[in-house]
Design a protein that fits this description.
The protein has 168 residues and is of the alpha+beta class. Helix content is 16%, strand content 35%. The radius of gyration is 18 Å and the shape is globular.
């Protein structure tokens, strides 16, 4: 029997018959991977821990946080799931207000941006697929952005982040 293509599963990647003990548990009280006065980023599932399948991060933005200006990715999709508070999300066409429970999926090449324009903190999950090593990006972006210039453009390209102002 043949199923429609949209109901097909990917080809198996595990070929054992017994299963494996290989789950990874991360307690809720694990400290964030990076903290700053404007927020924190928790490394929930990284490129290394998922074998590059996806990257999942919990981001906390303080009040009036700039977030990220309009950009796109050539190698990965990015998704946002709002856990608490509000976040302005640019979907490539217009700004929309995301609230707890709202979700935005940005396919590869899709323009997007985000910022917290409220006086309250917010938190969200960010999912990258396939998983890239985003930890270096999160840890160094603020400092490299302060320095600017050619170093910033090279840093962005190395991390698959193409900002619209880089092409003006």
């Amino acid at each position: 029997m043949s199923y429609p293509e949209h109901l097909q599963y990917p080809e198996p990647r595990y070929h054992g018959t017994e299963g494996e003990v290989n789950a990874v548990f991360r307690p809720a009280d694990t400290p964030p991977g990076i903290s700053s006065p404007g927020g924190a980023t928790h490394y929930l599932a990284t490129h290394d821990s998922t074998g590059g399948e996806f990257g999942l991060y919990k981001a906390e933005l303080g009040p009036r946080s700039a977030g990220a200006r309009t950009h796109f990715h050539k190698a990965m999709s990015e998704s946002f799931y709002i856990l608490s508070g509000e976040l302005e999300l640019y979907n490539g066409e217009k700004w929309v207000t995301g609230r707890a429970g709202d979700f935005l999926y940005v396919p590869v090449g899709g323009l997007h941006a985000f910022k917290n324009v409220t006086d309250e903190p917010m938190s969200m999950l960010m999912l990258f697929s396939p998983g890239a090593s985003r930890e270096e990006y999160f840890e160094q972006v603020a400092e490299v952005t302060r320095r600017g210039g050619a170093e910033l453009k090279e840093f962005r390209v190395r991390h698959d982040s193409y900002f619209v102002e880089d092409f003006d």
